[in-house]
Amino acid sequence: MNYSKIFLVLINMFLMILLTACTVERKVFVNQPLPENLLLECLPSMPKKSMTFGDSIKYNEHLLNVIEKCNQDKRAIKALNHLNGN
């Protein structure tokens, strides 16, 4: 048998062993509950029965703040998921 063929077979076997990446490291995933403050509903207060134009602008600002708080909660949930490796 030709030594070059044996050499190629040995090199290929060595490379396959490297590709299998044998390791003793084990990842253990633990389901942790999300903080309660991230799961609260974002409910805006109800508008007044009669509103002026200025009241409407203030109420719109209030609604935008509620939406921003919900978005912050969702970003925090995404960060926790990313941190947990999900």
Give the N-to-C terminal Cα separation.
52 Å
**Given the structure, what is the number of helices?**
3
What kind of sheet is the major sheet?
none
Shape by Cα distribution: rod-shaped
- Average pLDDT, rounded to a whole number, is 81
Low-confidence stretches: none
Task: Encode the helix/strand succession as letters.
Answer: HHH
In angstroms, what is the radius of gyration? 29 Å
- Beta strand count: 0
Structural class: mainly alpha
| Helix coverage percent | 55-70%
| Beta-strand proportion | under 5%
Short structural summary:
This protein has 86 residues and is mainly alpha-helical. It has helices at 3-20, 36-39, 53-83.
Key phrases:
86 residues, mainly alpha, rod-shaped
Any overview of this molecule?
The protein has helices at 3-20, 36-39, 53-83. 0% of the residues are buried. The model has no long low-confidence stretch (mean pLDDT 81). By secondary structure, the chain is mainly α.
Provide the fold topology.
Layout: H1 3-20, H2 36-39, H3 53-83
